[in-house]
């Protein structure tokens, strides 16, 4: 029997997770967990959340449980995956500090994902140092667990490349094979980043354009009704555009009946199909996907103490593995001064 590959992934607790997270990586995590080919470690990255939320610790505290509930709702199984909290594994900070000596400021400045996020957050010249170096922290997260496989969205490839560079540099200096270079697993083409309800390229809580995994039916319908379609499609009989039309963008992603979607597109483009009709159809598709998640989430939310205990148990298990790797790292660096 082939040895299981270590899978490492996670999310920052800054609010509930939305359908972009689900399509971007959560579906892959569940499928890989259930395949039996991987040893999954799934981290709630509360320390990284502080890099741009340091003045709002309550937000991170409250979001921790919400993210855990979302994980359980989508089907992540604590009997198959180790779900843990980043701050409960102090060895991650230690390896981050060592990694910081192996990368230049100039290299961090070239990271396109960080450059984009700095611009989006409007930091200007006041970039928190923790935010600036968080790709190094991410690299430590992966390397400490010897993560071989990382399910991520397309925009995270630069982060993985930075991790591989740091692992290669560490191994070159201190000994080949100590740490492992990870490979990414990406969502199907076109699903790496779902645009927001308003057509904005990014779906996010701050832009108020997201559908959350925990949204109830009424909230879901309200959001679907608000979706950006074709501003020139004023009357039902008017020909409409499907390109840039969020309803069809979402149908392409979520509706398994591709023939039905193709028919709706042709009818919309020819004229004779109203926006409200296709929105109702999209609502049915999305609700069928989200309803089982809502039910699971509500069940787990009835016993939040049990969810917190799950996180504690997972963090204990994760720390034990982290300590094994750190012993190897310290020995390789010559800083394991005693027993």
Distance between the termini: 35 Å
CATH class of the largest domain: Alpha Beta
Helix content: 40-55%
CATH-assigned fold name of the largest domain: Rossmann fold
Give the number of DSSP strands.
5
Structural class: mainly alpha
CATH superfamily of the largest domain: HUPs
The ordered H/E elements are EHEHHEHHHHHEHEHHHHH
| Broad shape | globular
Query: How many individual domains?
Result: 2
Described by strand count, sense and barrel closure, the largest sheet is: 3 strands, parallel
Order of strands across the main sheet? 1-2-3
What share of residues are in beta strands? 5-15%
Mean pLDDT: 94
**Regions with pLDDT < 50 over 5+ consecutive residues?**
none
CATH-derived architecture of the largest domain:
3-Layer(aba) Sandwich
Radius of gyration: 22 Å
| Helical run tally | 14
Catalytic activity: tRNA(Trp) + L-tryptophan + ATP = L-tryptophyl-tRNA(Trp) + AMP + diphosphate + H(+)
Keywords: Aminoacyl-tRNA synthetase, ATP-binding, Ligase, Nucleotide-binding, Protein biosynthesis
Enzyme class: ligase
Family: Belongs to the class-I aminoacyl-tRNA synthetase family.
Distinctive features:
Rossmann fold, three-stranded parallel sheet, 55% helix
Walk me through the topology:
Layout: E1 5-11, H1 19-35, E2 38-44, H2 46-49, H3 57-74, E3 82-85, H4 91-100, H5 105-109, H6 112-121, H7 129-132, H8 134-144, E4 149-151, H9 157-174, E5 183-185, H10 217-225, H11 246-254, H12 258-270, H13 275-301, H14 304-333
Parallel strand pairs: 1-2, 2-3, 4-5
Helix pairs in contact: 3-13, 4-8, 8-9, 10-13, 11-13
Protein name: Tryptophan--tRNA ligase
GO molecular function, one term: ATP binding
Enzyme class: ligase
């Amino acid at each position: 029997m082939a040895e299981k590959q270590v899978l490492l992934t996670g999310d920052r607790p800054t609010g509930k997770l939305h359908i972009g997270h689900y399509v971007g990586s959560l579906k892959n995590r569940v499928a890989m967990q259930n395949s039996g080919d991987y040893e999954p470690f799934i981290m709630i990255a509360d320390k990284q959340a502080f890099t741009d939320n340091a003045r709002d610790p309550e937000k991170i505290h409250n979001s921790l449980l919400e993210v855990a509930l979302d994980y359980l709702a989508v089907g992540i199984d604590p009997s198959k995956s180790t779900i843990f909290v980043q701050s409960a594994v102090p060895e991650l900070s230690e390896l981050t500090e060592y990694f910081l000596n192996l990368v230049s400021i100039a290299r961090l400045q070239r990271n396109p994902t960080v450059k984009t996020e700095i611009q989006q957050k409007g930091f200007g010249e006041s970039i928190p140092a923790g935010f600036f170096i968080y790709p190094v922290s991410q690299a430590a997260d992966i390397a400490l667990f010897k993560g071989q496989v990382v399910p991520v969205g397309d925009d995270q490839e630069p982060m993985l490349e930075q991790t591989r560079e740091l692992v290669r540099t560490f191994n070159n200096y201190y000994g080949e094979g100590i740490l492992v270079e990870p490979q990414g697993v990406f969502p199907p083409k076109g699903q790496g980043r779902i645009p927001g309800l308003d057509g904005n390229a990014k779906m996010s809580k701050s832009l108020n354009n997201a559908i959350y995994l925990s949204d109830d039916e009424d909230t879901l319908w309200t959001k679907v009704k608000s979706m950006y379609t074709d501003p020139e499609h004023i009357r039902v009989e008017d020909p409409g555009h499907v390109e840039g039309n969020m309803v069809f963008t979402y149908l392409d992603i979520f509706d398994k009946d591709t023939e039905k979607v193709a028919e709706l597109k042709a009818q919309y483009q020819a004229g004779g199909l109203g926006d409200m009709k296709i929105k109702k159809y999209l609502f049915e598709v999305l609700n069928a996907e989200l309803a089982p998640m809502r039910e699971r989430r509500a069940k787990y939310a009835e016993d939040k103490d049990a969810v917190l205990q799950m996180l504690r148990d997972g963090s204990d298990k994760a720390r034990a593995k982290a300590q094994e790797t750190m012993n190897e790292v310290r020995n390789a660096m010559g800083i394991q001064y005693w027993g």
